[in-house]
Design goal:
With about 220 residues, the protein is an alpha+beta fold. A four-stranded mixed sheet has the order 3-2-1-4. It is built from nine helices and four strands, in the order E-E-E-H-H-H-E-H-H-H-H-H-H. It is globular. The longest helix is centred in the middle third of the chain and has 24 residues. Strand 2 and strand 3 form a beta hairpin.
Length: about 220
Amino acid sequence: MTDALRVILEIGKKRRVVAGAMDWPGLERWGTSEDDAVEKLLSYVPRYADVAERAGKKSAFARARDVEVVERVPGSSSTDFWGIAHVPSQIEREVLSSTDLERRIVVLQACWAYFDDVAARITEDLLPGPRSAGRSHDQIVRHVYINEPEQFSRKVEVRTPFAEVMTRDGLAAHRQAYLDAIRAYNTQGKAARTWPIQFLIRRTAHHVMDHAWEMEDRDPSPLG
């Protein structure tokens, strides 16, 4: 962990570049060039500060302002289509120390808490917008909660029934089981199928934060 804002760039074959902050899961944006992607990522730094504070890492995040591109990854057609990282970097293939893993887990938990709070705070019909194919508030929340066992946690063999994650206690139990599985896989040096554990955490956090920010951007309340 350094004071630099270490960034991984995934470069699509045609039109999109994804910039992800490797030490700060969930802080990830895409642009039409390397510079544009980094600029977009930096524009979300003030919004991500709440996550860092929830994780008890406000000071460390405040120091991480100088961008250091640590790896450029050739992307895929999915990188271009979705504007989401799809190809793990070489750095992310390294097995994390227990300290580094727990740090990332704490940040992921802060992302979950941020999303839950946004979902509870914004309850009105969202303004129209191109993101999420115009899903409603309830549809976004359902998508985020169900998508986790459907796409992410199953990679570490946590297959929570969809109905369970839609309840408060079931969601809490799912998240605990997911984190326990992540710890076990990392301890054994196992990948989550084709994804390294670092990349799994990164993708999970990004999905949560992307939709939290979407709800904020489409919030009809003038105080949103």
